[in-house]
Each structure stands twice: as C-alpha cells, then as structure tokens.
C-alpha cells in the first residue's frame, strides 16, 4: 500500500474575514483538546526570568496577529482584541482531570471522578464550528514578585500549584526511581522549578476511516518553504511599505532528553541568524510561559538593550551545550549574513518635524517584520502547526510570538485524532521561522503598545504628544488640533521667538503688564523642543487654559470647534501684542479676522456639489479672504453642517471633498499643510489633526486625543486619504470621520523654509526656565543663541544673599480699594490712576527679616497716619500667575493672622518662617509689591491685653521716598477715617461710625479722595441707615477709650502683645453694580454673617435677608453658608483666606427686577460678572447685530447686548427647535415664534424662556389649535381650542393614525403613539424630553 501523500490540513478560521489576520494552519486535523480558533492566538512578548515567568500582564495585554482586512490600522497602537489567546482551560478539562487522576493514584489518594464523555469527532471543514471560547483570560496564571500566584482577575491563588505533566500508569513513578536518581531530580527541580519525567512514546497510527479523513484534506508539508513563505509574506496594500530582505531559521531539538541527559530548561534559544542586517533567534518555552502550552517567540537580538545582552551572555555557552542536538544553522534569503553584521542604517537622516533646542536622545532601534513559525515533527513533516504575525521589534518589545502556540505541552507526545502520528516522536521537535523585513518610513507599522513597551511618540515620530489634563472628558482633540497646527507652523513659531513678553524673573520687567497667553504658548513650544527624553510626560496644555482663566475667560472650550478656539486665542494675542512691534503680525500671518457683523471674510467653502476643494474655492459666492489680503497661512473651513428644514434637524454633511495638494486663491498658490478630522455626530467633540510640515512627499503626523491616549502617529498618504474621506458605514452621520478644516501655506514661504538649514535658534526667555529641572544644562544646548547662567535657573537655594543688596518695593495702601468698582480689587495696568494716590516706594536691604519689626518701623515713617507699627499688616502680592485684577496674597508679615501655607517657606528651605529674609522672597515675588493695611488704632488697642502706648510720628527715613503724586495733604490724612473699619463709637459699642461721624471725618480728606468717600458714605446711609442693635454687639469686641495723649511713650517694647488669629478680607455690595465696602479684619472664631452685619450696620431683618457669596475668580462665585465662622469656612474652602472677596446681595423685588430686565440692566450677580469679563476680553462683540454659525454650535443671528442675544433675533438650537422673536440676555422674552422639531408652533408671548402671556399653539400632528393664556409654560386661564380631529381619534396613534394608542414613554409618561411608532421616536412629542424606554399598555 502506497504511503499517503505529503499533505497538510488547512484549518478554516472561525473569525470573520474582516477580523482575521493570523494564519493558523494545523498540519494535523486533530488536537487534544480541540484546536484553538484563529482569534485565540496569544500574541505577546516574552520576558526571561530565572524560574516563573512574571510578565505582569493579563490576556488582554497579549496582542494578536495582523491582517490587511482587519479594522485596526496596521500601525495602530491598539491591535484587534480578537487576536488574543482567550481559550479557557475548560476546553482542556478532560486532559487535566486525566492528569489529576494519575497523580492521585501515584500519591495514594482517592481517585478523581471521571470527566463527562467528550465526543472524539469534530468537523473542521464546517464553518464556525470551533469549540466555544469562554471568559478571556480564564486560564491565565502569572507569578507575582513575591512568588505567589494570581489569576487573570487579579485575585491571589495561594493554593495554586503549577500543573505537572501527567504520567502514564505503566511509566515509573517517583517511588520506582533509585535513591540517587530521585535525589538528583529533586536537586534539579529546585534549580529549574520542573521535575523531569520520562515520556512514553505513542506509536499508534490512524485506522482506515481516520486515514481516509486525513487524505480527503489538502495538507502541506513543513518542508514546503515556498508555500509557507507565501502565507507569511502577505502582500502589503500600502505602497509606502516596501518588502525588504527575507530569511529563515531552522532548528531541531531534543525535547525531553534521557535520564542521563535530561532537558529541563525553562527557556531554550536557537542559534542567532542574520536577516537583513539584524540578528534573529527563536525562543522556546518547553513547559509553557505562564501557561500549559508550548510558548514560542521570535526575537530580534539586534534591538535588545545592551544590559539585557550582558545578562544573557553568561548563559550562552551552557545553552549551546544543552542544544548539542541542533541541526547546523541554515539561512535562506538574499540578505542572510553572518551574525556579526550590524543592522542596516539609513544613509540619510530625515529632517525633523520640529527642531530641538537640546541634544536629541539616541534614536530608538526598531524594525518591522512579518514573521511566522512552523512547529512540526521531523519524522513526519505533515504533522505540525503554523502561526504568523506582523510586529515592530524594538527595545521595549524585542520579541513577539505566541504564549499558547500549541498544547497542552504534556499531551504533545500523544497522537491526537486526525494526526498521522504524535507531534513529539523520537523526542524530537523541529522549528522553521520565516522572517521578512518591512521598510517603513513611518516607524509605526506593527507597533504593539503595552506596559513594557509604552508608546513613545517622540522616539517614533520625532514629535512629543500633547494632552489637556484640565478637561475631564475624552474630547480634548479640539485644543490639541489648534496647538499642533500652530506649533508646527514655522511662521507662527518665529512670531513667538520675536515677541518679548515681560520676564517676571527680571526686576526691570516684573512690573510690566504680563502676557499670560504669550508666555504659555512659548512654554508649550519650549516643551515641544526639549521634552523628548524617554519617559517624559506629554506636553500639557492646561497652562493655555489657565492663561485664559486669568483673563476671566471661562467659556467651555470643550464644546467649541477648532475655528472658534482659534478666534478666542487670536483675540487675546492681539490684545497682548497691542502697542508692540508685533501688533499686526497675526493679520499678516492669518489674514484679516472674520467680522461677525458682516460674516466676511468667510474662510469657508461649500462641499455639496463639488469634487475638489479648488472647485469649491472657485464656486464660493462670498469672499474667501478680505480684498487685498494675501495671508501666509490660509485656514479654510469646509461647510459640514446644514439645517434640514424638512426633518428640522442639524445634519452633518459627509460629501467627499478631495483636498488638493496645491490650490490657487486670488492668484496666489498655496500648499496643503494639514487638516482637522471630525468624527462622530455634530456634538461628539472628537477632533484630530493631521499635519505635513514639510510639504508634498514628506511624512504626515496625526495628533490623537484622550480616546487614543494622546499619542502622535506617523501616517502614510494612503492612511491620510482614508482618514479624510467617509467610510462605508451604515450610519454615516454618526460614525463617519471626515475632514472639516484644511490649512494651506503659501508655496513660496514653504519652499524658503525647506531651503533653510538652520535649526531655529531661540533666545529662550529666562523666566520660562526657572521651574524646569532639565533646564540646568541649558548652556550645553546647541541651538540656544545665548547660554544662560545656570545659577539663575531652577529652584532657589533659600540662603540669604552673600551681598546685602538693596531692593526697591512698591507699597500699595488698602485705601485704594475704597473707590473700586467691579470684580477683583486692584488694577495695576489698565487703570493705574486708581492706586496712584495710595502707592509708595520703599527701599529695603535683602538681609531684613520679613516678619521682623524693622520693615513695619520703616513703613510707619513712610505712610502718614500710622501711630504704632503694630497697626501695619503687610502681604507680598503675587501678580505673576494671577489675574491682573486680583493678585494672590502671599505670606503676611505679622503673626496671628490666618496662617499662610508653609509651601513658600519650604520652597525657600527655611526651617523657621520667622527667619526668612526679604532677599529670599525676591526670587519668588520678583515684582516686589506689598499690600498694606492699617488697622485702626482703637481696634488694635481693644484686642490687646494692655493699652497701646502710642509714640509720636517719627521723621521719614532718608531712603523712604513717597511716590510721585503724593502731596503734603496726604501726610495730614487721618488714618482712622480711611481705615476700612472706621472709628470706635462709645455710645453704641460699634466699631463703625454712624452717619454724622463718617461724613465729618470724610471732609478732612484730600480733594482727590474726598468726593469718592463722601459719595460712598452717603450711599451707605441711604441704603442701610444705621440701626443700633445691642444684641449684635460682641462684648469681646468692645473697645476702651483711647488713652490720653499724655500717656504716649517713645516706642513700645518689642515683646508687647500682638493680635490673635484674624482673617483679612474685602467686602463688596451688589445692587446692579459691584461696589466696594472696604477691607476688614475679623476674628477667626467670629461668625461671618454677624461680622458683615456689624460692618454694614444692619438690623436683624436685613441681616436675615442678606445673601453672602465669595468671589473666587473674576467670573466664579460660591455661596457662603450662614452661621459659619471664618475658621469653619476656611476649613471647608482653602481659598477662603487672607485676600478673600466677600459679596453681599440683598433681595430685589420682582417688579424692580422685571423693569430693569426690560431696560437691559443686569441684576443677576453671575451675569454681571460674566458681562464685565466679556467687556474686557471681547470689546468688538459686545453690542450690535451679529451672526454666529460655528460648526457644532447653535446658530444665532440678531441683536446682542453684553455679548448676549438681546433684542430681535433668530436662534436655531441643537435639538432642531427654531425661535425668532425678542430676546433679553439670551432668554426668550417678549413676543416671538417657536417652531419645535416636530413642527408644532407657538406664536405669542414669552417670559424668561417660558410661554407666558397670550399665545397660540398649533399641534402639527392633529391640526388642533389652542388660543388663549399661558403661565409658566402651561395653559392657564381663559382659552379656546379648535379641534381638527374628533375626540374619537383619541385612541389612535398620533403618528401613523392607524395603530392603537398603546405605548407609554418612560420616564415622562406621555402616551401618543402605537408601539411600533413609539420605538422609532427619540423625543416625546408632547414634552420633547428624551425617550428612555417604551412600555406597552394592556387595557382590561
């Protein structure tokens, strides 16, 4: 009888074609247990450990093989989950229980019950007939660092024992061995973790029926290299991926060995073979790598870190000795070289997308390759198994393969059904590895991200990634897209190099108006050009948002599209650069800003009906750019949304529009620079930028958002084309990714940049380097034009300066706050005249102790009206990182006030805050500003144990010169009047003067301050007449009469008592305008509401109606709970401390509120703060007629006041509702027409966004009309309904008018449709709430 033909059985994959990439071909049609399906291949790295292999990974981390048809891109960091080894150990229950039975018999324990019968037949040719796959990772067991084991769920398995190979009953057990052999075996087990057992060879052969089944299939021999190479080296669909050298590794081993020459190694390696200039080898775990399966990996030795190579060098000789049965090394392929050859290096260094300021780290060694392994029996090459994959080998992932290649390993010596013989015959196994190098310029093909191999954006692409950590949601792609395009535009970078933002670390510039946004953009650019070392975090963009917050811009940027964010940033940059040589630079770069009054220039082109963007540019009706403009960079928005009048819904236009590499606008040629892709529906907020910095023929770079872990990828042109065009999905509107914005740059400018070979040298501002530890080697940077003094970079040493330098400080008296109006408490830049009369200049040596008495003594000589130095409260002001209108309060010079955070003193490295000197603080508070508050003498005397002994006013020191603008009248001012607490009144026991006293004292002020104080006093008396309430007076605060002048002594001793714990705060009252009520101090144990009531002299009814708020920022408020003390509020809110702003607001009658609302006056405190912020930040968008039609935003066209719809206008909401009529501060108020998405119409009066007054409502589904009165959005009072549908139709579906009315919407409870129509409705047609579910009603 002739032998059967040399055929291999091919296994059909159970995975759909779109998800199958691994080629798993079984040479034998039967495994025991049944073979794993294609998607169960365990692709992972191997880590060599002495005993157990601790991979620190779960099954979900084991990435799978690749395929051209799979959904994930070949270079995606997230390979498809279907490529993992997810086969549960329950598939091997029979083999495990059989092994357990044998072990129990050997140990003399009770036998294990036999398993349920398992069918021995399996149809491998039938589609999708693989055994069911159970829970992912159910059979994964890994070893922790302390030797215990945990399962894939992370729970410890203290009683887990590694599985031992089963022993046949006729094989000698441990008890039959001689003593010496068993002793040797035990010793070896301690060394290897495995006890050697002999394996009985299975010599059985298939019967005639089984042989016919085998012969009926088309099988291939393991020696048919041409066939396996064709299966491994699949065709590359992307033309930018070029096939490279190929080669093979042949390896034959003895698996178990003999008693005299036992093979007990946990890891075995083949000889090294060179393919394409890289050294390769096979790594084999005979007893599994944390599994019960044979584990096989292919390793690129050339990319392994040197320290890893050295650690394995000592084991090389022993490994070769144990592999003495190997066949000679056989290398096939055109580039098969000796093992001494180094990896092929690129002859030309690619141009970096963004040049570095420092020395670049060494490039990452990596190579992409298609690899496969054929495991077979040397005696019968038709019995074997095949696996393949595509992987990028790099130091973080030098090997890749299959943890569960085949198994379990203790069954390989037994023949399984469908095999001509057992896989292990004559104790021999053979391996053939096929390798083909892939030439990939992107450096991302085949990259598999893991804990051991994190995605290193710079190492792979030359660009660090960016992230916005201030955004909690995943939609941070809009800001990343904005910043990535700007930062990769060299013309914009050159603007940042040229602009001279004040350096807050330099004394000459510290008091200039800060450029918050410019400084943050320069810092982002610095990080992008420096933060490139392995392990460096992403470049955080939260500083950009913090800069906007400093200006009071609290707009929700997460809901803005890219164009809208560009407009906000550009507006602030133009304001910061006003009056500088850079004033018109943004107009020259990006063109004239769009005027929302006229909508011109539009910078937008239609997409419907056009094939290319050049056709759309030629066909647009409105001017794309302003007449005469020729911007260097042209951002063209594609009109991707339209309001469909038929469906009454916003629709995303997904028409394909080809972005030409070259376009012509007004005769000027532009080259495509980049694009922004929008994915999902209109409200998804998912954006990603794709940029080509060096023009056609160069690399594309994609900046991903948080959903894709904020990585940067290098893409091929084919991948870019796929990204900007719609995919063939069922729901294109909700799931399509399409280009919505294209950025072009003038071709002449781009060509000049490419011709330049300089690396953009930059004189980095010193202030940017102070907080970066990696800036200590700035002098070694290649491309910094001026080596900086490293002694002035980085953290302060905290020691006193060796030379006693004199510093000039600016002292601002708190009386400047008396005339303040609006949010904040100080304006040092735009309205300096408000504080000019209350500013002083003080010179202090750096050696003076900050909390010592000498500073207060000098200020007492400088500022008039101070009789005792203990009246002085002094704080450092921090204007560097705070809003210009409310600088942060630094440490106080006096003990006993609300304790400041010790972070400042720890930063200065002072163990005791009392020893900190002025010179050390200058390094932190470089603007050198003090905030001064003078405590009323009588209040201070009342709080001390002993009465004050007041000294005569000393002469002014020679080095303390009043600032220009002070006149002799200022020296005659009585501090007790300007003090915010006022005089103590003996008759009432109050700390605050009554009407006559306040007016009398105010007349003695200088002419400049007199008018403001008198007006404030008169207003205070008019609004809140002084009512005396003896119950409000705290006995502890009752002050004694000031001592007579005859008791004054030259100077109080230094150890005289000081104030106890107090808090310093600003007080304001809001009545349509936010007005100052002075700065005050209060005891920490005093109730906030009572302290405020005393200051404002309120009676009990007024006190109970008073509302208290804390102004936390220029536009943010928080309420202050009544009956809390200052200390309790501070414990709840750590921002409630010295310098806090407290706002008092009294109830306003509804009639007054409505009258002022109709007049366009603001009586809502939150709206007031926001309108004041808009006045400062958007002066060009405050009042007038505007049109706003940003992508993914509401449409509005009409009148505006304070940057809010006010007057007549039209608004189209996200949900499809359309309102046209009167607005008051963004609310529907007055007469208007509201058309709902379901075509219902209301025409009539509105009040505060509700139907209120007389109106007519038409039900579009029935034609019924109600005309009458409404109140708070409900029908109220008299009205008439005209029925078009009879009441008999009440039981009929109001959608199809055929089915019964049987479905109720959950959770609104309305019943308007039949069950079929209700399931199709997203919103209730009655209340327009979202339908969360549908419930069918059954009527009895």
TrEMBL record:
Residue spans of biased composition, Polar residues class: 335-349
Chief localisation class: cytoplasm
Organism, scientific name: Coniosporium apollinis
Every RING-type domain range: 1293-1328
Domain MATH: 246-435
Region described as Disordered: spans on this chain: 1-126, 146-208, 308-362, 961-982
Acidic residues compositional bias, start-end: 59-69, 179-191, 199-208
Keywords: Cytoplasm, Metal-binding, Repeat, Zinc, Zinc-finger
Pfam families linked: MORN (PF02493), UCH (PF00443), zf-C3HC4_3 (PF13920)
Biased composition (Low complexity): 14-30
Keyword presence, NADP: no
Gene3D superfamilies the record matches: Apoptosis, Tumor Necrosis Factor Receptor Associated Protein 2, Chain A, Cysteine proteinases, Histone H3 K4-specific methyltransferase SET7/9 N-terminal domain, Zinc/RING finger domain, C3HC4 (zinc finger)
Subcellular location: Cytoplasm
Compositionally biased spans, kind Pro residues: 350-362
Basic and acidic residues bias spans: 308-332
Name listed for the protein in its UniProt record: MATH domain-containing protein
């Amino acid at each position: 009888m002739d032998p059967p033909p040399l055929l291999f059985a091919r296994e059909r994959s159970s995975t759909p074609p779109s998800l199958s990439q691994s080629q798993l071909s079984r040479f034998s049609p039967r495994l025991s247990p049944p073979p794993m399906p294609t998607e169960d291949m365990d692709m992972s790295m191997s880590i060599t450990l002495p005993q157990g292999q601790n991979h620190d990974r779960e099954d979900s981390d084991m990435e799978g093989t690749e395929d051209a048809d799979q959904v994930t891109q070949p270079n995606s960091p997230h390979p498809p989950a279907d490529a993992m080894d997810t086969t549960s150990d329950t598939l091997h229950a029979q083999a495990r229980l059989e092994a357990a039975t044998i072990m129990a018999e050997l140990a003399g324990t009770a036998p294990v019950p036999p398993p349920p019968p398992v069918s021995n037949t399996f149809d491998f040719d039938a589609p999708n007939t693989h055994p069911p796959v159970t829970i992912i990772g159910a059979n994964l067991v890994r070893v922790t660092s302390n030797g215990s084991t945990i399962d894939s769920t992370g729970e410890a398995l203290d009683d887990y024992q590694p599985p031992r190979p089963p022993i046949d009953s006729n094989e000698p057990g441990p008890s039959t061995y001689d003593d010496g052999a068993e002793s040797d075996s035990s010793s070896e087990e301690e060394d290897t973790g495995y006890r050697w057992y002999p394996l009985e060879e299975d010599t059985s052969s298939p019967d005639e029926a089984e042989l016919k089944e085998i012969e009926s299939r088309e099988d291939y021999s393991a020696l048919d290299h041409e066939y396996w190479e064709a299966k491994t080296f699949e065709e590359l669909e992307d033309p930018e991926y070029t096939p490279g050298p190929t080669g093979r590794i042949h390896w034959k081993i003895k698996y178990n060995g003999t008693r005299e020459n036992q093979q007990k190694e946990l890891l075995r390696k083949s000889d090294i073979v060179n393919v394409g200039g890289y050294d390769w080898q096979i790594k084999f775990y005979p007893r599994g790598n944390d599994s019960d399966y044979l584990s096989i990996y292919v390793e690129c030795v050339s990319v392994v870190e040197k320290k890893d190579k050295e650690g394995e060098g000592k084991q090389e000789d022993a490994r070769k000795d144990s592999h003495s049965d190997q066949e000679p090394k056989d290398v096939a392929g055109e580039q098969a070289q000796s093992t001494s050859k180094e990896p092929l290096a690129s002859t030309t260094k690619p141009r970096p997308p963004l040049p570095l300021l420092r020395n670049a780290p060494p490039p990452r060694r990596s190579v992409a390759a298609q690899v496969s392994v054929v495991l077979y029996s040397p005696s019968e090459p038709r019995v074997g198994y095949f696996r393949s994959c595509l992987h990028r080998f790099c130091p973080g992932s030098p090997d890749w393969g299959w943890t569960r290649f085949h198994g379990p390993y203790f069954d390989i010596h037994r023949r399984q059904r469908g095999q001509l013989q057992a896989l292990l015959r004559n104790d021999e196994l053979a391996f053939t590895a096929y390798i083909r190098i892939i030439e990939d310029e992107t450096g991302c093909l085949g990259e598999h991200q893991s804990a051991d191999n994190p995605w290193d954006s710079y190492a792979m692409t030359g660009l660090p990634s960016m992230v916005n950590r201030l955004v909690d949601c995943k939609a941070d792609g809009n800001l990343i897209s904005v910043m990535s395009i700007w930062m990769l535009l060299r013309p914009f970078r050159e603007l940042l190099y040229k602009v001279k933002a004040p350096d807050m670390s330099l004394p000459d510039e510290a008091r200039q108006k800060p450029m918050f946004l410019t400084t943050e953009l320069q810092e982002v650019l610095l990080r992008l050009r420096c933060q490139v070392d392995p392990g460096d975090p992403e470049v955080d963009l939260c500083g950009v948002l913090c800069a906007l917050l400093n200006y009071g811009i609290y707009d929700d940027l997460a809901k803005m599209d890219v164009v809208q964010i560009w407009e906000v940033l550009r507006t602030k940059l133009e304001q910061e650069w006003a009056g500088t040589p850079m004033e018109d630079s943004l107009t020259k770069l990006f063109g004239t800003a769009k005027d929302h009054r006229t909508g011109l220039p539009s910078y937008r082109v239609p997409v419907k009906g056009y094939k290319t963007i050049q056709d759309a540019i030629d066909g647009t009706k409105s001017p794309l750019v302003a007449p005469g403009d020729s911007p260097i960079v042209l951002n063209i928005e594609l009109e991707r949304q339209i309001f469909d009048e038929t469906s009454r819904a916003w629709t995303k236009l997904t028409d394909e529009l080809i972005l030409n590499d070259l376009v012509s606008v007004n005769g000027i040629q532009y080259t495509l620079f980049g694009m922004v892709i929008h994915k999902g529906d209109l409200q998804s907020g998912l954006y990603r930028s794709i940029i080509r910095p060096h023009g056609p023929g160069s690399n594309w770079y994609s900046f991903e958002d948080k959903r894709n872990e904020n990585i940067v990828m290098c893409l091929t042109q084919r991948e870019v084309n796929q990204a900007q065009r719609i995919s063939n999905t069922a729901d294109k509107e909700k799931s399509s990714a399409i280009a919505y914005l294209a950025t072009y740059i003038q071709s002449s400018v781009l060509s000049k940049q490419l011709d330049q070979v300089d690396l953009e040298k930059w004189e980095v501002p010193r202030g940017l380097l102070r907080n970066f530890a990696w800036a200590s080697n700035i002098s070694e940077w290649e491309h910094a034009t001026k080596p900086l003094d490293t002694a002035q970079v980085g953290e302060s040493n905290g020691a006193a300066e060796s030379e006693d330098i004199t510093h000039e400080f600016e002292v601002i008296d708190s009386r400047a706050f008396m005339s303040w109006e609006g949010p904040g408490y100080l304006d040092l830049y735009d309205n300096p005249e408000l504080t000019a009369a209350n500013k002083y200049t003080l010179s202090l040596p750096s050696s003076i102790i900050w909390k010592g008495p000498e500073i207060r003594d000098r200020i007492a000589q400088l500022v008039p009206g101070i009789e005792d130095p203990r009246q002085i409260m002094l704080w450092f002001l921090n204007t560097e990182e705070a809003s210009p209108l409310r600088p942060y309060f630094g440490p106080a010079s006096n003990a006993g006030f609300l304790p400041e955070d010790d972070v400042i003193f720890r930063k200065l490295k002072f163990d005791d805050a009392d020893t900190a000197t002025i010179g050390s603080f200058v390094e932190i508070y470089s603007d050198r500003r003090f905030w001064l508050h003078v405590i009323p003498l009588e209040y201070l005397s009342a709080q001390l144990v002993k009465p004050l002994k007041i000294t005569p006013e000393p002469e002014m020191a020679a080095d303390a010169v009043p600032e220009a603008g002070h006149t002799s009248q200022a020296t005659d001012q009585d501090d007790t009047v300007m003090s915010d607490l006022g005089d103590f009144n003996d008759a009432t026991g109050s700390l605050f003067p009554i009407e006559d006293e306040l007016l009398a004292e105010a007349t003695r002020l200088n002419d400049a301050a007199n008018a403001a104080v008198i007006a404030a006093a008169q207003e205070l008396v008019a609004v809140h007449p002084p009512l005396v309430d003896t119950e409000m007076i705290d006995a502890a605060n009752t002050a004694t009469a000031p001592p007579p002048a005859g008791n004054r002594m030259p100077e109080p001793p230094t150890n005289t008592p000081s104030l106890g714990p107090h808090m310093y705060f600003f007080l304001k009252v809001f009545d349509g305008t936010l007005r100052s009520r002075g700065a005050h101090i209060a005891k920490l144990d005093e109730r906030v509401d009572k302290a405020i009531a005393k200051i404002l002299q309120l009676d009990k009814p007024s006190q109970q109606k008073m509302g208290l708020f804390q102004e936390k920022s220029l536009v943010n408020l928080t309420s202050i709970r009544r009956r809390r003390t200052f200390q309790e509020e501070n414990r709840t809110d750590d921002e409630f401390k010295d310098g806090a702003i407290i706002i008092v607001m009294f109830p306003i009658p509804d009639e007054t509120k409505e009258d002022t609302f109709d007049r366009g006056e603001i009586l809502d405190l939150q709206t007031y703060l926001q309108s004041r912020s808009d006045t400062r930040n958007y002066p060009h968008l405050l009042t007038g007629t505007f049109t706003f039609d940003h992508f993914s935003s509401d449409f509005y066209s009409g009148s505006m006041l304070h940057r809010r719809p006010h007057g007549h206008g039209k608004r189209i909401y996200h949900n499809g509702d359309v309102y046209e009529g009167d607005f008051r501060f963004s609310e529907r108020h007055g007469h208007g027409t509201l058309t709902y998405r379901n075509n219902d119409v209301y025409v009539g009066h509105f009040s505060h966004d509700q139907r209120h007054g007389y109106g007519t409502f038409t039900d579009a589904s029935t034609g019924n009309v109600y005309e009458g009165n409404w109140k708070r959005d409900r029908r109220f009072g008299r009205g008439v309904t005209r029925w078009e549908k009879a009441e008999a139709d009440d039981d009929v579906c109001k959608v199809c008018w055929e089915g019964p009315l049987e479905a109720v919407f959950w959770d609104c409870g309305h019943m308007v449709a039949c069950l079929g129509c209700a399931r199709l409705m997203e919103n209730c047609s009655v209340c327009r709430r979202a339908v969360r579910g549908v419930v069918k009603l059954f009527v009895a």
